[in-house]
Amino acid sequence: MSPSSRPGTRSGPRRRALSAALLLPLLLGLAGCGSDDDSDAPDGAGGGGGGGDEPEVTLTVLAAASLSDVFEAAGEEYEAANPGTTVRFSFAGSQELVAQLNGGAPGDVLVTADTRTMADVAELTGEPAVIARNELTIVTPPDNPAGVTGLADLGDPELRLVLAAPEVPAGRYGQEILAAENIEAEPDSLEVNVRSVLGKVQLGEADAGLVYVTDATVAGDDVAVVPIPEEQNVTASYPAATLNDAGDPAAAEDFVAWLTGETAQELLGAAGFLAP
Amino acid sequence: MRRRRPPLTLALPALLAVAFLLVPLLGVLVDAPWGELGERLTAPAVTEALRLSLLVSGWALLISLLLGVPLAWLLARTEFPGRTLVRCLVILPLVLPPTVAGVALAQGFGRRGVLGEHLERFGVQLSFTTAGAVVAAVFVAMPFLVISLEGALSGLDPHFEEAAATMGAGALRTLWLVTLPMLRPALTAGAALCWARALGEFGATITFAGNLPGVTQTLPLKVYLLLQGDPAGATAVSLLLLVIAAAVLIALRGRWVGALHPRG
Protein backbone atom coordinates (compact mmCIF):
# COMPACT_ATOMS: atom_id res chain seq x y z
CA MET A 1 0.00 0.00 0.00
CA SER A 2 2.55 2.63 1.02
CA PRO A 3 5.44 2.77 -1.44
CA SER A 4 7.46 5.22 0.67
CA SER A 5 8.05 2.72 3.42
CA ARG A 6 11.78 1.85 3.45
CA PRO A 7 12.63 -0.66 6.13
CA GLY A 8 16.33 0.15 6.16
CA THR A 9 16.03 3.78 7.16
CA ARG A 10 13.16 3.66 9.59
CA SER A 11 14.10 1.28 12.30
CA GLY A 12 13.90 3.95 15.03
CA PRO A 13 10.38 5.24 14.45
CA ARG A 14 9.25 1.77 13.58
CA ARG A 15 10.35 0.37 16.88
CA ARG A 16 8.49 3.15 18.64
CA ALA A 17 5.45 2.51 16.48
CA LEU A 18 5.55 -1.17 17.31
CA SER A 19 5.62 -0.61 21.03
CA ALA A 20 2.87 1.97 20.68
CA ALA A 21 0.81 -0.56 18.78
CA LEU A 22 1.36 -3.06 21.54
CA LEU A 23 0.47 -0.59 24.26
CA LEU A 24 -2.53 1.00 22.59
CA PRO A 25 -5.01 -1.84 23.14
CA LEU A 26 -3.77 -2.22 26.69
CA LEU A 27 -4.35 1.45 27.35
CA LEU A 28 -7.76 1.27 25.71
CA GLY A 29 -8.56 -1.68 27.91
CA LEU A 30 -7.64 0.30 31.01
CA ALA A 31 -9.48 3.40 29.85
CA GLY A 32 -12.59 1.28 29.33
CA CYS A 33 -13.10 1.36 33.09
CA GLY A 34 -13.62 5.12 32.97
CA SER A 35 -16.82 6.53 31.59
CA ASP A 36 -15.23 9.07 29.22
CA ASP A 37 -16.09 7.16 26.07
CA ASP A 38 -19.57 6.40 27.21
CA SER A 39 -20.63 9.89 28.16
CA ASP A 40 -18.88 11.53 25.23
CA ALA A 41 -20.71 9.63 22.55
CA PRO A 42 -24.28 10.76 23.27
CA ASP A 43 -23.11 14.33 23.94
CA GLY A 44 -21.28 14.43 20.68
CA ALA A 45 -24.29 13.05 18.87
CA GLY A 46 -26.51 15.64 20.51
CA GLY A 47 -24.37 18.73 20.10
CA GLY A 48 -22.70 17.93 16.82
CA GLY A 49 -25.83 18.01 14.69
CA GLY A 50 -25.78 21.80 14.41
CA GLY A 51 -28.35 22.58 11.72
CA GLY A 52 -31.24 20.24 12.67
CA ASP A 53 -34.15 21.32 14.87
CA GLU A 54 -34.35 18.03 16.73
CA PRO A 55 -31.34 16.95 18.74
CA GLU A 56 -30.34 13.39 17.99
CA VAL A 57 -30.51 11.31 21.15
CA THR A 58 -29.91 7.60 21.59
CA LEU A 59 -31.30 6.09 24.78
CA THR A 60 -29.84 2.80 25.89
CA VAL A 61 -32.27 0.93 28.10
CA LEU A 62 -31.09 -2.12 30.04
CA ALA A 63 -34.22 -4.13 30.75
CA ALA A 64 -35.19 -7.42 32.35
CA ALA A 65 -35.64 -10.30 29.90
CA SER A 66 -39.33 -10.65 30.76
CA LEU A 67 -39.98 -7.19 29.30
CA SER A 68 -38.42 -7.94 25.93
CA ASP A 69 -41.57 -8.25 23.81
CA VAL A 70 -43.57 -5.40 25.28
CA PHE A 71 -40.60 -3.02 25.39
CA GLU A 72 -39.81 -3.47 21.71
CA ALA A 73 -43.30 -2.16 20.97
CA ALA A 74 -43.03 0.54 23.65
CA GLY A 75 -39.74 1.71 22.18
CA GLU A 76 -41.34 2.24 18.79
CA GLU A 77 -44.20 4.19 20.35
CA TYR A 78 -41.77 6.37 22.24
CA GLU A 79 -39.67 7.04 19.16
CA ALA A 80 -42.80 8.00 17.22
CA ALA A 81 -43.80 10.45 19.96
CA ASN A 82 -40.27 11.84 20.31
CA PRO A 83 -38.72 12.41 16.88
CA GLY A 84 -34.94 12.42 16.94
CA THR A 85 -34.80 9.95 19.78
CA THR A 86 -33.67 6.39 19.20
CA VAL A 87 -34.35 3.85 21.93
CA ARG A 88 -32.27 0.71 21.96
CA PHE A 89 -32.69 -2.12 24.41
CA SER A 90 -30.35 -4.61 25.98
CA PHE A 91 -32.35 -7.46 27.49
CA ALA A 92 -30.99 -9.96 30.00
CA GLY A 93 -31.77 -11.41 33.39
CA SER A 94 -31.97 -8.62 36.00
CA GLN A 95 -28.92 -9.94 37.84
CA GLU A 96 -26.99 -10.18 34.62
CA LEU A 97 -27.85 -6.56 33.77
CA VAL A 98 -26.46 -5.51 37.13
CA ALA A 99 -23.34 -7.59 36.52
CA GLN A 100 -22.97 -5.88 33.14
CA LEU A 101 -23.38 -2.44 34.76
CA ASN A 102 -20.79 -3.25 37.40
CA GLY A 103 -18.53 -4.31 34.55
CA GLY A 104 -18.85 -0.84 33.03
CA ALA A 105 -21.61 -1.38 30.48
CA PRO A 106 -22.97 1.98 29.33
CA GLY A 107 -26.66 2.75 29.69
CA ASP A 108 -29.21 5.47 30.32
CA VAL A 109 -32.10 3.62 31.95
CA LEU A 110 -32.30 0.41 33.98
CA VAL A 111 -35.50 -1.62 34.41
CA THR A 112 -35.33 -4.72 36.60
CA ALA A 113 -37.85 -7.42 37.42
CA ASP A 114 -37.59 -6.90 41.17
CA THR A 115 -36.91 -4.13 43.65
CA ARG A 116 -34.09 -6.02 45.35
CA THR A 117 -31.89 -6.12 42.27
CA MET A 118 -32.54 -2.41 41.72
CA ALA A 119 -31.61 -1.72 45.34
CA ASP A 120 -28.29 -3.54 44.80
CA VAL A 121 -27.19 -0.79 42.42
CA ALA A 122 -28.80 2.14 44.22
CA GLU A 123 -25.53 4.08 44.07
CA LEU A 124 -25.56 3.94 40.25
CA THR A 125 -29.16 5.02 39.67
CA GLY A 126 -31.64 7.78 40.32
CA GLU A 127 -34.80 7.24 42.35
CA PRO A 128 -36.61 4.17 40.92
CA ALA A 129 -40.30 4.25 39.98
CA VAL A 130 -42.39 1.08 39.74
CA ILE A 131 -43.80 0.83 36.21
CA ALA A 132 -45.55 -2.55 36.32
CA ARG A 133 -46.25 -5.62 38.38
CA ASN A 134 -46.29 -9.26 37.46
CA GLU A 135 -47.28 -12.60 38.95
CA LEU A 136 -46.13 -16.15 38.47
CA THR A 137 -48.00 -18.98 36.82
CA ILE A 138 -47.45 -22.66 36.12
CA VAL A 139 -47.00 -23.52 32.47
CA THR A 140 -47.10 -27.00 30.96
CA PRO A 141 -46.94 -28.32 27.40
CA PRO A 142 -50.33 -27.83 25.68
CA ASP A 143 -51.46 -31.39 26.41
CA ASN A 144 -50.27 -31.18 30.05
CA PRO A 145 -48.78 -34.69 29.95
CA ALA A 146 -48.27 -34.92 33.71
CA GLY A 147 -51.76 -33.65 34.51
CA VAL A 148 -50.62 -30.74 36.66
CA THR A 149 -53.57 -29.02 38.34
CA GLY A 150 -51.90 -26.78 40.89
CA LEU A 151 -48.88 -25.93 42.99
CA ALA A 152 -49.14 -29.11 45.09
CA ASP A 153 -48.40 -31.24 42.00
CA LEU A 154 -45.00 -29.56 41.67
CA GLY A 155 -43.80 -31.55 44.69
CA ASP A 156 -44.14 -34.83 42.79
CA PRO A 157 -40.56 -36.14 42.44
CA GLU A 158 -41.53 -37.89 39.18
CA LEU A 159 -42.57 -34.62 37.60
CA ARG A 160 -40.08 -33.16 35.18
CA LEU A 161 -40.00 -29.67 36.61
CA VAL A 162 -37.94 -26.70 35.48
CA LEU A 163 -37.49 -23.57 37.56
CA ALA A 164 -35.42 -20.44 37.19
CA ALA A 165 -32.17 -20.44 39.16
CA PRO A 166 -32.46 -18.84 42.62
CA GLU A 167 -29.90 -16.27 41.46
CA VAL A 168 -32.49 -14.61 39.20
CA PRO A 169 -35.69 -12.91 40.42
CA ALA A 170 -38.09 -15.39 38.81
CA GLY A 171 -36.27 -18.20 40.58
CA ARG A 172 -36.39 -16.42 43.92
CA TYR A 173 -40.12 -15.71 43.57
CA GLY A 174 -40.68 -19.35 42.66
CA GLN A 175 -38.82 -20.48 45.77
CA GLU A 176 -40.89 -18.10 47.90
CA ILE A 177 -44.13 -19.49 46.52
CA LEU A 178 -43.09 -23.12 47.00
CA ALA A 179 -41.69 -22.49 50.47
CA ALA A 180 -44.88 -20.74 51.60
CA GLU A 181 -46.86 -23.84 50.60
CA ASN A 182 -44.29 -26.23 52.13
CA ILE A 183 -43.78 -27.89 48.77
CA GLU A 184 -40.45 -29.65 48.39
CA ALA A 185 -39.93 -29.47 44.66
CA GLU A 186 -37.15 -31.40 42.96
CA PRO A 187 -36.41 -29.38 39.85
CA ASP A 188 -34.65 -31.10 36.95
CA SER A 189 -32.99 -27.89 35.91
CA LEU A 190 -32.43 -24.40 37.27
CA GLU A 191 -32.47 -22.23 34.19
CA VAL A 192 -30.46 -19.03 33.94
CA ASN A 193 -33.46 -16.89 33.11
CA VAL A 194 -37.21 -17.16 33.05
CA ARG A 195 -37.41 -17.28 29.26
CA SER A 196 -35.34 -20.44 29.10
CA VAL A 197 -37.75 -22.05 31.58
CA LEU A 198 -40.50 -21.21 29.11
CA GLY A 199 -38.39 -22.60 26.25
CA LYS A 200 -37.91 -25.95 27.98
CA VAL A 201 -41.68 -26.25 28.47
CA GLN A 202 -42.40 -25.18 24.89
CA LEU A 203 -39.98 -27.81 23.63
CA GLY A 204 -41.83 -30.39 25.68
CA GLU A 205 -38.68 -31.26 27.62
CA ALA A 206 -40.30 -30.25 30.89
CA ASP A 207 -43.71 -31.23 32.25
CA ALA A 208 -44.07 -27.99 34.12
CA GLY A 209 -42.32 -24.72 34.84
CA LEU A 210 -42.87 -21.55 36.83
CA VAL A 211 -42.83 -18.38 34.73
CA TYR A 212 -44.34 -14.91 34.80
CA VAL A 213 -47.94 -14.57 33.66
CA THR A 214 -46.62 -12.32 30.88
CA ASP A 215 -44.28 -15.04 29.60
CA ALA A 216 -47.23 -17.39 29.31
CA THR A 217 -49.08 -14.67 27.36
CA VAL A 218 -46.17 -14.43 24.93
CA ALA A 219 -46.06 -18.20 24.44
CA GLY A 220 -49.73 -18.32 23.51
CA ASP A 221 -50.90 -21.75 22.39
CA ASP A 222 -47.44 -23.26 22.79
CA VAL A 223 -48.12 -23.79 26.48
CA ALA A 224 -51.07 -24.49 28.74
CA VAL A 225 -51.50 -22.29 31.80
CA VAL A 226 -52.31 -23.57 35.27
CA PRO A 227 -53.00 -20.38 37.24
CA ILE A 228 -51.69 -19.92 40.77
CA PRO A 229 -54.40 -18.51 43.06
CA GLU A 230 -53.87 -14.98 44.36
CA GLU A 231 -53.31 -16.08 47.96
CA GLN A 232 -50.53 -18.49 46.93
CA ASN A 233 -48.87 -16.09 44.49
CA VAL A 234 -46.28 -13.37 44.88
CA THR A 235 -46.20 -10.02 43.13
CA ALA A 236 -43.12 -8.92 41.26
CA SER A 237 -42.53 -5.19 40.96
CA TYR A 238 -40.67 -3.74 37.99
CA PRO A 239 -38.80 -0.58 38.97
CA ALA A 240 -37.30 1.73 36.35
CA ALA A 241 -34.57 4.25 37.11
CA THR A 242 -32.20 6.55 35.27
CA LEU A 243 -28.53 5.69 35.44
CA ASN A 244 -26.15 8.28 36.87
CA ASP A 245 -23.86 7.89 33.85
CA ALA A 246 -26.67 8.59 31.39
CA GLY A 247 -25.44 10.55 28.37
CA ASP A 248 -28.57 12.71 28.34
CA PRO A 249 -30.11 12.64 31.83
CA ALA A 250 -33.13 14.73 30.82
CA ALA A 251 -34.03 12.31 28.01
CA ALA A 252 -33.54 9.33 30.34
CA GLU A 253 -35.85 10.90 32.94
CA ASP A 254 -38.42 11.65 30.29
CA PHE A 255 -38.43 8.01 29.18
CA VAL A 256 -38.85 6.71 32.74
CA ALA A 257 -41.75 9.13 33.28
CA TRP A 258 -43.27 8.06 29.95
CA LEU A 259 -43.22 4.42 31.08
CA THR A 260 -45.69 5.25 33.87
CA GLY A 261 -47.88 7.22 31.45
CA GLU A 262 -51.01 6.17 29.63
CA THR A 263 -49.55 4.83 26.36
CA ALA A 264 -46.93 2.64 28.00
CA GLN A 265 -49.35 1.41 30.64
CA GLU A 266 -51.83 0.32 27.96
CA LEU A 267 -49.09 -1.65 26.19
CA LEU A 268 -47.94 -3.23 29.44
CA GLY A 269 -51.52 -4.12 30.37
CA ALA A 270 -52.11 -5.74 26.97
CA ALA A 271 -49.00 -7.87 27.53
CA GLY A 272 -50.41 -9.18 30.80
CA PHE A 273 -48.65 -6.90 33.27
CA LEU A 274 -50.55 -5.53 36.24
CA ALA A 275 -50.69 -1.78 36.88
CA PRO A 276 -48.03 -0.45 39.29
CA MET B 1 20.54 -17.16 7.21
CA ARG B 2 19.07 -14.06 8.77
CA ARG B 3 15.32 -13.88 8.69
CA ARG B 4 13.78 -11.05 6.76
CA ARG B 5 12.46 -8.30 8.98
CA PRO B 6 8.72 -8.06 8.60
CA PRO B 7 7.37 -4.96 6.87
CA LEU B 8 5.69 -2.50 9.20
CA THR B 9 2.40 -2.71 7.28
CA LEU B 10 2.15 -6.38 8.26
CA ALA B 11 3.80 -6.27 11.66
CA LEU B 12 1.46 -3.59 13.02
CA PRO B 13 -1.85 -5.37 12.40
CA ALA B 14 -0.27 -8.67 13.43
CA LEU B 15 0.83 -7.19 16.74
CA LEU B 16 -2.62 -5.70 17.20
CA ALA B 17 -4.05 -9.16 16.65
CA VAL B 18 -1.74 -10.62 19.28
CA ALA B 19 -2.61 -7.84 21.73
CA PHE B 20 -6.29 -8.36 20.98
CA LEU B 21 -6.01 -12.02 21.96
CA LEU B 22 -3.84 -11.25 24.95
CA VAL B 23 -5.90 -8.51 26.61
CA PRO B 24 -8.84 -10.66 27.76
CA LEU B 25 -6.45 -13.25 29.17
CA LEU B 26 -4.54 -10.53 30.99
CA GLY B 27 -7.86 -9.26 32.27
CA VAL B 28 -8.62 -12.59 33.90
CA LEU B 29 -5.13 -12.77 35.37
CA VAL B 30 -5.31 -9.23 36.74
CA ASP B 31 -8.85 -9.52 38.08
CA ALA B 32 -8.51 -12.99 39.59
CA PRO B 33 -8.94 -12.92 43.37
CA TRP B 34 -5.45 -14.32 43.95
CA GLY B 35 -5.56 -13.94 47.73
CA GLU B 36 -8.62 -16.13 48.14
CA LEU B 37 -8.12 -18.30 45.07
CA GLY B 38 -7.55 -21.51 46.99
CA GLU B 39 -10.57 -20.91 49.15
CA ARG B 40 -12.81 -20.14 46.17
CA LEU B 41 -11.67 -23.08 44.07
CA THR B 42 -12.19 -25.53 46.92
CA ALA B 43 -15.69 -24.27 47.72
CA PRO B 44 -18.06 -27.28 47.64
CA ALA B 45 -20.14 -25.84 44.79
CA VAL B 46 -17.01 -25.44 42.66
CA THR B 47 -15.49 -28.84 43.43
CA GLU B 48 -18.84 -30.44 42.68
CA ALA B 49 -18.93 -28.73 39.29
CA LEU B 50 -15.28 -29.68 38.70
CA ARG B 51 -15.95 -33.31 39.55
CA LEU B 52 -18.93 -33.32 37.19
CA SER B 53 -16.90 -31.59 34.46
CA LEU B 54 -14.17 -34.23 34.69
CA LEU B 55 -16.76 -37.02 34.65
CA VAL B 56 -18.64 -35.59 31.66
CA SER B 57 -15.53 -34.73 29.63
CA GLY B 58 -13.98 -38.12 30.45
CA TRP B 59 -17.01 -40.00 29.16
CA ALA B 60 -17.22 -37.67 26.16
CA LEU B 61 -13.59 -38.48 25.30
CA LEU B 62 -14.15 -42.22 25.69
CA ILE B 63 -17.24 -42.23 23.48
CA SER B 64 -15.55 -39.98 20.93
CA LEU B 65 -12.63 -42.43 20.75
CA LEU B 66 -14.92 -45.46 20.39
CA LEU B 67 -17.01 -43.87 17.65
CA GLY B 68 -14.64 -41.31 16.19
CA VAL B 69 -11.61 -43.49 15.44
CA PRO B 70 -13.57 -45.90 13.22
CA LEU B 71 -15.31 -42.96 11.55
CA ALA B 72 -12.00 -41.24 10.81
CA TRP B 73 -10.62 -44.50 9.40
CA LEU B 74 -13.62 -44.98 7.13
CA LEU B 75 -13.45 -41.40 5.92
CA ALA B 76 -9.74 -41.60 5.14
CA ARG B 77 -9.44 -45.16 3.83
CA THR B 78 -12.61 -46.09 2.04
CA GLU B 79 -14.80 -44.81 -0.74
CA PHE B 80 -18.48 -44.83 -0.07
CA PRO B 81 -21.42 -42.92 -1.45
CA GLY B 82 -22.08 -39.72 0.48
CA ARG B 83 -18.61 -39.53 1.95
CA THR B 84 -18.40 -35.78 1.37
CA LEU B 85 -21.74 -35.41 3.06
CA VAL B 86 -20.55 -37.38 6.08
CA ARG B 87 -17.44 -35.24 6.27
CA CYS B 88 -19.61 -32.10 6.27
CA LEU B 89 -21.73 -33.65 9.01
CA VAL B 90 -18.64 -34.25 11.12
CA ILE B 91 -17.45 -30.65 10.76
CA LEU B 92 -20.89 -29.09 11.23
CA PRO B 93 -20.84 -29.01 15.06
CA LEU B 94 -17.61 -27.01 14.88
CA VAL B 95 -19.30 -24.13 13.11
CA LEU B 96 -22.79 -24.38 14.60
CA PRO B 97 -23.68 -21.82 17.26
CA PRO B 98 -23.61 -23.84 20.50
CA THR B 99 -27.19 -22.95 21.41
CA VAL B 100 -28.31 -24.12 17.97
CA ALA B 101 -26.49 -27.37 18.65
CA GLY B 102 -28.44 -27.57 21.92
CA VAL B 103 -31.77 -27.00 20.19
CA ALA B 104 -30.87 -29.61 17.56
CA LEU B 105 -29.94 -32.09 20.30
CA ALA B 106 -33.29 -31.48 22.00
CA GLN B 107 -35.12 -32.07 18.71
CA GLY B 108 -33.13 -35.24 18.16
CA PHE B 109 -32.52 -36.80 21.55
CA GLY B 110 -34.94 -34.77 23.67
CA ARG B 111 -38.07 -36.20 25.08
CA ARG B 112 -40.15 -35.23 22.04
CA GLY B 113 -37.21 -35.64 19.70
CA VAL B 114 -36.86 -37.90 16.68
CA LEU B 115 -34.97 -40.57 18.60
CA GLY B 116 -35.60 -39.33 22.12
CA GLU B 117 -39.29 -40.16 21.88
CA HIS B 118 -38.41 -43.85 21.45
CA LEU B 119 -35.69 -43.75 24.08
CA GLU B 120 -38.21 -42.27 26.48
CA ARG B 121 -40.47 -45.28 25.95
CA PHE B 122 -37.64 -47.52 27.15
CA GLY B 123 -37.16 -45.32 30.19
CA VAL B 124 -34.01 -43.69 28.84
CA GLN B 125 -33.95 -39.98 29.53
CA LEU B 126 -31.19 -37.74 28.23
CA SER B 127 -32.37 -34.18 28.81
CA PHE B 128 -31.69 -32.92 32.35
CA THR B 129 -29.36 -35.85 33.06
CA THR B 130 -25.60 -36.24 33.27
CA ALA B 131 -25.88 -38.53 30.24
CA GLY B 132 -27.43 -35.61 28.38
CA ALA B 133 -24.46 -33.41 29.30
CA VAL B 134 -22.18 -36.15 27.92
CA VAL B 135 -24.20 -36.28 24.69
CA ALA B 136 -23.85 -32.50 24.31
CA ALA B 137 -20.11 -32.72 24.94
CA VAL B 138 -19.63 -35.59 22.45
CA PHE B 139 -21.60 -33.69 19.81
CA VAL B 140 -19.34 -30.65 19.91
CA ALA B 141 -16.04 -32.33 20.79
CA MET B 142 -15.88 -35.47 18.62
CA PRO B 143 -15.20 -33.49 15.40
CA PHE B 144 -11.82 -32.39 16.79
CA LEU B 145 -10.75 -36.00 17.15
CA VAL B 146 -12.15 -37.17 13.82
CA ILE B 147 -10.63 -34.30 11.87
CA SER B 148 -7.15 -34.60 13.32
CA LEU B 149 -7.17 -38.38 12.86
CA GLU B 150 -8.51 -38.25 9.33
CA GLY B 151 -5.87 -35.74 8.34
CA ALA B 152 -3.11 -37.91 9.76
CA LEU B 153 -4.52 -41.06 8.19
CA SER B 154 -4.65 -39.44 4.77
CA GLY B 155 -0.98 -38.58 5.12
CA LEU B 156 -0.08 -42.11 6.18
CA ASP B 157 1.22 -44.49 3.53
CA PRO B 158 -1.37 -47.29 3.21
CA HIS B 159 1.44 -49.70 2.23
CA PHE B 160 2.09 -50.53 5.88
CA GLU B 161 -1.52 -51.55 6.38
CA GLU B 162 -1.48 -53.50 3.13
CA ALA B 163 1.69 -55.27 4.20
CA ALA B 164 0.10 -56.27 7.49
CA ALA B 165 -2.92 -57.55 5.61
CA THR B 166 -0.79 -59.66 3.29
CA MET B 167 0.74 -61.24 6.39
CA GLY B 168 -2.67 -62.34 7.47
CA ALA B 169 -3.71 -59.67 9.92
CA GLY B 170 -7.42 -58.86 9.98
CA ALA B 171 -8.73 -55.33 9.66
CA LEU B 172 -9.10 -54.79 13.42
CA ARG B 173 -5.70 -56.32 14.18
CA THR B 174 -4.07 -54.12 11.55
CA LEU B 175 -5.80 -51.05 12.98
CA TRP B 176 -4.70 -51.90 16.50
CA LEU B 177 -1.11 -53.04 15.82
CA VAL B 178 -0.09 -51.00 12.80
CA THR B 179 -2.27 -48.00 12.10
CA LEU B 180 -2.98 -46.68 15.57
CA PRO B 181 0.65 -46.84 16.81
CA MET B 182 1.75 -44.89 13.73
CA LEU B 183 -1.01 -42.38 14.41
CA ARG B 184 -0.15 -41.93 18.03
CA PRO B 185 0.90 -38.26 17.82
CA ALA B 186 -2.25 -37.30 15.93
CA LEU B 187 -4.36 -39.48 18.20
CA THR B 188 -2.92 -37.85 21.32
CA ALA B 189 -3.38 -34.39 19.90
CA GLY B 190 -6.91 -35.08 18.69
CA ALA B 191 -7.89 -36.68 21.97
CA ALA B 192 -6.49 -33.79 23.99
CA LEU B 193 -8.32 -31.20 21.90
CA CYS B 194 -11.48 -33.27 22.06
CA TRP B 195 -11.23 -33.50 25.84
CA ALA B 196 -10.49 -29.79 26.23
CA ARG B 197 -13.45 -28.87 24.04
CA ALA B 198 -15.71 -31.21 26.03
CA LEU B 199 -14.48 -29.65 29.26
CA GLY B 200 -15.32 -26.18 27.98
CA GLU B 201 -18.71 -27.05 26.51
CA PHE B 202 -21.39 -24.58 27.58
CA GLY B 203 -24.10 -23.61 25.10
CA ALA B 204 -25.29 -27.02 23.99
CA THR B 205 -25.21 -28.29 27.56
CA ILE B 206 -27.26 -25.47 29.05
CA THR B 207 -29.72 -25.62 26.16
CA PHE B 208 -30.15 -29.39 26.01
CA ALA B 209 -29.13 -30.80 29.38
CA GLY B 210 -30.19 -27.91 31.60
CA ASN B 211 -28.45 -26.63 34.69
CA LEU B 212 -28.68 -28.53 37.94
CA PRO B 213 -25.85 -28.62 40.49
CA GLY B 214 -24.30 -32.08 40.67
CA VAL B 215 -26.22 -33.37 37.66
CA THR B 216 -25.67 -31.09 34.68
CA GLN B 217 -23.99 -28.00 36.10
CA THR B 218 -20.45 -28.29 34.75
CA LEU B 219 -17.74 -25.70 35.39
CA PRO B 220 -18.58 -23.42 32.45
CA LEU B 221 -22.22 -23.31 33.56
CA LYS B 222 -21.08 -22.59 37.10
CA VAL B 223 -19.03 -19.66 35.79
CA TYR B 224 -22.09 -18.26 34.05
CA LEU B 225 -24.22 -18.52 37.18
CA LEU B 226 -21.51 -17.13 39.42
CA LEU B 227 -21.45 -14.06 37.18
CA GLN B 228 -25.01 -13.28 38.28
CA GLY B 229 -23.91 -12.37 41.77
CA ASP B 230 -20.27 -13.20 42.45
CA PRO B 231 -18.04 -11.89 39.64
CA ALA B 232 -14.87 -12.59 41.65
CA GLY B 233 -15.92 -16.23 41.99
CA ALA B 234 -16.62 -16.37 38.26
CA THR B 235 -13.16 -14.97 37.52
CA ALA B 236 -11.52 -17.50 39.82
CA VAL B 237 -13.23 -20.45 38.10
CA SER B 238 -12.53 -18.92 34.68
CA LEU B 239 -8.86 -18.83 35.59
CA LEU B 240 -8.98 -22.52 36.43
CA LEU B 241 -10.53 -23.39 33.05
CA LEU B 242 -8.08 -21.09 31.29
CA VAL B 243 -5.13 -22.79 32.96
CA ILE B 244 -6.43 -26.25 32.00
CA ALA B 245 -6.97 -25.23 28.37
CA ALA B 246 -3.54 -23.58 28.18
CA ALA B 247 -1.92 -26.64 29.77
CA VAL B 248 -3.44 -28.87 27.09
CA LEU B 249 -2.09 -26.64 24.32
CA ILE B 250 1.36 -26.38 25.92
CA ALA B 251 1.47 -30.16 26.33
CA LEU B 252 0.68 -30.44 22.62
CA ARG B 253 3.43 -28.02 21.60
CA GLY B 254 5.13 -29.42 18.56
CA ARG B 255 2.25 -31.72 17.80
CA TRP B 256 -0.95 -29.97 16.92
CA VAL B 257 0.25 -26.43 17.40
CA GLY B 258 3.57 -27.10 15.71
CA ALA B 259 1.97 -29.05 12.89
CA LEU B 260 0.45 -25.85 11.57
CA HIS B 261 3.88 -24.76 10.40
CA PRO B 262 4.89 -25.82 6.90
CA ARG B 263 7.41 -28.60 7.05
CA GLY B 264 9.78 -27.09 4.47
Structure keywords:
heterodimer, A: 276 residues, alpha/beta, 9-stranded mixed beta sheet, 9 strands, elongated, disordered N terminus, B: 264 residues, mainly alpha, 0% strand, disordered C terminus
Nutshell version of this structure?
The complex is a heterodimer of chains A (276) and B (264). By secondary structure, chain A is α/β, with parallel strands linked by helices.
Fold blueprint:
The complex is a heterodimer of chains A (276) and B (264).
Chain A: H1 11-31, H2 36-47, E1 57-64, H3 68-81, E2 85-92, H4 94-102, E3 109-111, H5 115-120, E4 129-140, E5 161-164, H6 169-180, E6 189-191, H7 194-202, E7 208-212, H8 213-219, E8 224-226, E9 235-242, H9 249-259, H10 262-270
Parallel strand pairs in A: 1-2, 1-3, 5-6, 5-7
Antiparallel strand pairs in A: 3-9, 4-7, 4-8, 4-9
Chain B: H1 8-31, H2 37-41, H3 44-77, H4 83-95, H5 98-109, H6 116-121, H7 130-154, H8 159-166, H9 171-182, H10 184-200, H11 203-209, H12 219-226, H13 231-251, H14 256-259
Care to describe what's here?
The complex is a heterodimer of chains A (276) and B (264). Chain A is α/β, with parallel strands linked by helices. Chain A has helices at 11-31, 36-47, 68-81, 94-102, 115-120, 169-180, 194-202, 213-219, 249-259, 262-270, and strands at residues 57-64, 85-92, 109-111, 129-140, 161-164, 189-191, 208-212, 224-226, 235-242. Chain A is built from ten helices and nine strands. In chain A, helix 3 (68-81) links the parallel strand 1 and strand 2 (85-92). Chain B has helices at residues 8-31, 37-41, 44-77, 83-95, 98-109, 116-121, 130-154, 159-166, 171-182, 184-200, 203-209, 219-226, 231-251, 256-259. Chain B is globular, with a radius of gyration of 21 Å. The two termini of chain B are 15 Å apart. In chain B, 36% of the residues are buried. Mean pLDDT of chain B is 89; it is low at 258-264. The chains are: A alpha/beta (276), B mainly alpha (264). At the A-B interface, helix 1, helix 4 and strand 6 of A face helix 1, helix 5 and helix 11 of B.
